[in-house]
Design a protein that fits this description.
The chain is mainly alpha-helical and 162 residues long. The protein has 5 helices and 2 strands; from the N terminus they run ααββααα. α1 packs across α4. InterPro entries: HARBI1_dom.
Length: 162
């Protein structure tokens, strides 16, 4: 998924407002996924390099990792937050109350060699299906069913940065 292009600052209404909500929600999802895979690559050897296996095996490995990750997070939290071993304080990225980044997590240095930025993998053209999916998410994120209470406040507070 890619964000809607454009950084022009203008009246935050209608289509532009919806696109900024979509871009913000996509950015938040990406941050969470990046943190999760960062933790995994720092903690699980299988994620330190490309996995060469059948798709079914990769899916099973990822499902097993999700289960173990969640179990270890619950185990860490159930004992003492000051004694977390799997994901200690400062290990994941933190953010300020307004949602802006505060500190990079320690996993970024522990797993620096494991996660690499992707170069361009295809053309800048995308299919009509991809466009429809992005627009469906955009509409969902501003609908009553898909909106979250803090998204509009964040967009209003950070309009000059978007």
């Amino acid at each position: 998924m890619r964000p809607f292009p454009g950084r022009d600052v203008g009246q935050m209404t209608g289509e532009k407002y919806e696109k900024n909500i979509y871009n913000y929600r996509l950015s938040r999802a990406r941050q969470i996924i990046e943190n999760t895979f960062g933790i995994w690559s720092a903690r699980w050897r299988i994620f330190k390099r490309p996995i060469i296996a059948a798709t079914e095996s990769v899916e099973l490995n990822i499902k097993a990792t999700i289960c173990l990750h969640n179990w270890l997070r619950v185990l860490d939290c159930s004992e003492s937050p000051d004694n977390d071993q799997y994901c200690p304080s400062g290990f994941i990225d933190t953010e300020n109350e307004d949602g802006s980044p505060a500190n990079d997590g320690q996993w970024r240095t522990d797993a620096a060699y494991a996660l690499r930025n992707l170069t361009q993998t295809g053309s800048n053209m995308y299919t009509r299906d991809a466009c429809d999916i992005r627009n469906n998410f955009k509409r969902y994120f501003v609908s009553e069913a898909g909106s979250v209470p803090w998204q509009e406040q964040y967009i209003d507070d950070h309009a000059a940065l978007i």
